[in-house]
Amino acid sequence: MKGRPEVLAALTEVMRAELTASNQYLLGGAQARNGGFLKLATKFEAESKGEFEHARQVAERLLFLGGAPDGRLLTDPQQSESPVEQLRLDLALEVAHADRLNSGIKVAREHGDHASAQLLEAILVATEAHVDWLETQLELAKKIGDGLYLSQQL
Ligand SMILES: [Fe+2]
């Protein structure tokens, strides 16, 4: 089946952003594990795999629509040695990605590609869940202090 170029472009951008996110969580996980924050590391590692799976799903959809999956990252992954700063960087990434997904869903619907829209909607739900988790962590750290928050992440 042939996809509309506008939809292929939106899917490609989403796939590249998913790969960026997967890499950013991979680096955050490695950094957190190295720092001894094993709980955060486990969470970041799971997120990295989740984002990779999203990229895989979008790659499959692109191929079905006659497109060529693009494995390049969309932007450089952002990393910090401070786990709380890493959470802030991840939140910024996820918020930007939610905007991107909402735009992609609109484009897909405008071109009558409801299955692509549905795929992006499912990814959007997961992305908003990440946003929610990240916001909660940052609020907690603010409330109880970074030191106490991090002492719960060992
Ligand atoms: Fe994702």
Task: Give a written overview of the molecule.
With 154 residues, this protein is an all-alpha fold. It has helices at 5-35, 38-64, 83-110, 114-144, 146-151. It has a single domain, classed as Up-down Bundle (Ferritin). The protein is built from five helices and no strands. Helix 1 (5-35) runs antiparallel to helix 3 (83-110) and helix 3 (83-110) packs antiparallel against helix 4 (114-144). The longest helix has 31 residues, at 5-35. It starts with a helix and ends with a helix. The model has no long low-confidence stretch (mean pLDDT 98).
Number of helical regions: 5
According to CATH, what is the topology?
A: Ferritin
CATH top-level class: Mainly Alpha
CATH architecture: Up-down Bundle
H/E topology pattern: HHHHH
Identify low-pLDDT runs: none
Radius of gyration: 17 Å
Average pLDDT for all residues = 98
Number of β-strand runs: 0
Please outline the major beta sheet. none
- The CATH homologous superfamily is named Ferritin, core subunit, four-helix bundle
Structural class: mainly alpha
**Ligand list:** fe (ii) ion
Task: Write the topology of this structure.
Layout: H1 5-35, H2 38-64, H3 83-110, H4 114-144, H5 146-151
Tag the structure with descriptive keywords:
elongated, Ferritin, 0% strand, 154 residues, binds fe (ii) ion, single chain
